[in-house]
Amino acid sequence: MASNYTTRIRLNQQGDGDNPNSWGTVLNDGVISLVDEAVAKYTTVSLGSAATVTLSAVDGGTDVPRSAFLEANGTVGGAHTTITMVIPNVTKGYVVNNQTTYTTTTNVVKIKTAPGDGLTIPQGAISQIVVDTDGSVYSTNASGLGLGTAASADIGVCATNIADVSLADLRYVRTSATSTIVASDLHIKQGSLIVGTSSRAYNPILTLTDAASITSDFAKGNNFLVTIGGNRTLAAPSNAVAGQSGSIYIIQDGSGSRTLGYNTVFQFVSATVPTLSTGAGDVDMLVYMARSATTIDAVLLKNFDR
Q: Which of 2, 35, 228, 247 measures 20 to 30 Å from 157, CA to CA?
């Protein structure tokens, strides 16, 4: 009886009387070594600009899709945004590690059988996948990971990610908290945030770029500083919100005598636009409160010195 091969990982099943005097070698090379690969081998698959990379199967010999672990590597994209690895259409499990570099944000790496639709493996993801009897490819889902019906999400910063936060990050205080959370004298209660006596809360001073028109982004902070080297105008800040308050230090350079004009969003007491202190190195502070995104009430405190 002639030798044949197992369906899924293509091991050599020797026929009666086959391979006289070399039967043990065939067993070692065509069965035992291949079982070792199917259980534990890690193989790197190079992907590139080709739309499809087919992982060819070999009966009784070493091949890529027999490996238990596959790493997708290389730089993908170019002529095709979707790059697909095609695996044999037999039931089997794999762990797939997508370590490819994408040329654009629209690139996709998929794994599929010839008749199947395929499964996307996110960049940088390590996915446990299985191939069923219909040739469909599935990955471990949230329920399988013990997460119930929770959707999966990456740690990151965009709208589809779970934001990376800590107790020191005050941007994510729950306003609906019903109990007290205490961490290093930071108390978060329903409707309030309390900083303990051994802690402090502060907003850093951000340095603005000196230019003919001095710009600021109120989304980045409340307090600013600029040293002016010529006659300047303070432009309307971007991203101001009603209720935001802070200060802007304006410092004369070593020559002094610099003037500062203001965009009309800045409103002053008695409708009188203030003038700066003019001595070399003089320090003035513009204290402000945003009445709205386009109306900022301000007072200039002059010549901090003693």
A: 247
